[in-house]
Amino acid sequence: MTERQQTELLAVLGAGVMGVGIAALALGHGVPVVLVDVDPDALTRAAEAVPLRIRQGQLLGKLPREATVPQLVTTTSLDEVRQATVVVEAVVEVPAVKAKVLGEVSELVAPGTPVVTNTSGIPVDELAGHTARPADVLGAHFMNPPYLIRTVEVIRGPRTSEAALARALELLTVLDRESIVVGDGPGFVINRILQRMINESARIVQEGIASHEDVDSLFQGCLGHTTGPLATADLIGLDNVVDSLRVLHERTGDAGYAPCDLLLNKVAAGDFGRKSGRGFYAYAP
Description:
This protein is α/β, with parallel strands linked by helices. It has helices at residues 3-7, 17-28, 40-59, 95-108, 124-128, 162-174, 190-206, 212-223, 229-236, 238-252, 261-268, and strands at 10-13, 33-36, 73-75, 86-89, 115-117, 137-142, 151-155, 178-182. Strands 3-2-1-4-5-6-7-8 form an 8-stranded mixed sheet, sandwiched between helices.
């Protein structure tokens, strides 16, 4: 373990799919993690899931097998993040919830500590406006699962300082991530394009033009995509897709981002994708 790994303490806020994945990524590279969630049951599930994710990453050659893996610390108290060197927020994609959590954590950590949001679509500067020090706030949009997908879309807000950006990029380097820095705005690059593509693909299925299998097969066979847009949506979580589309629709006014009825109906039925066992596809438990 390097001196840098020993001196880092990553606080991850939110023990959902992305929080678990980010924690596994950091621990798999020897960086200590404190994982915070208001739900004790979510933390219990996370404590069981994180070692499995690390093992998967190691078996696939995406995480180093020789790294010393620190013990994951879980807590329901935000006070436990005071000593964090970097904070990554990965709570539900609801602007008011993210703003509240980011505001609270920014009051606890030392000035100059990067406060990173993993939002998939909310402008970073909008969230930064709810914090004690907007200059410390930036975005890091990890792809799912973050311990397998190496590239991270890093978002620099108009008030993000050079120091906060550099400090966050240093940690991502320790985690062996490739960082691509982009500007701020609803959806940034990936989701401004991807979420619209998912929505339009679902609308095509809704209209009976093609099945979900055929839509995905066309993207794979004609465009060389590893997975099609609707299988990707199942991986993201259809509830998360709808939340992201709503953010984009509200902030751009573009009707193309209004979630189509098929997506809304699936979410209302609890068919969220892989995490619930059914979305556009069915998945074995």
